[in-house]
Design brief:
The protein is α+β, with helices and mostly antiparallel strands and 112 residues long. Helix content is 20%, strand content 37%. The chain has a four-stranded antiparallel sheet, covered by helices on one side.
């Protein structure tokens, strides 16, 4: 089992969600986060005063998948979240030691 975390632009959420639904992935957690990479924020003008926005609003999607689904899920996220501009985001894949469905006590792939 693997955990996939994707940091994406907020307006791409529906596209990513639809792409994952196409491959029957429906369970995910979405969090509002802020950060920056190479983008380093940007400068804005408000009422004549210039200020720096260091952290850019993003969404973090987290999902757990069976190991044989990882490549397909990563590909779908990357294709649907891409704008081709700086700040499109990142996808992280890590191993999951154990998954337990609290309601039934199922473990492993059955809990997904």
């Amino acid at each position: 089992m693997k955990k996939i975390e994707a940091i994406i632009k907020p307006f791409k959420l529906e596209d990513v969600k639809d792409a994952l639904a196409d491959i029957e992935i429906s369970g995910m957690t979405v969090s509002e986060v802020k950060g920056h990479g190479r983008q380093q924020g940007h400068t804005e003008l408000y009422r004549g005063a210039e200020y720096v926005v260091d952290f850019i609003p993003k969404l973090k999607i987290e999902l757990a998948v069976a190991e044989d689904m990882v490549d397909e899920v990563v590909s779908k996220i990357a294709q649907s979240a891409k704008t081709g501009k700086i700040g499109d985001g990142k996808i992280f894949v890590s191993s999951l030691e154990k998954v337990v469905r609290i309601r039934t006590g199922e473990e492993g792939n059955e809990a997904l």
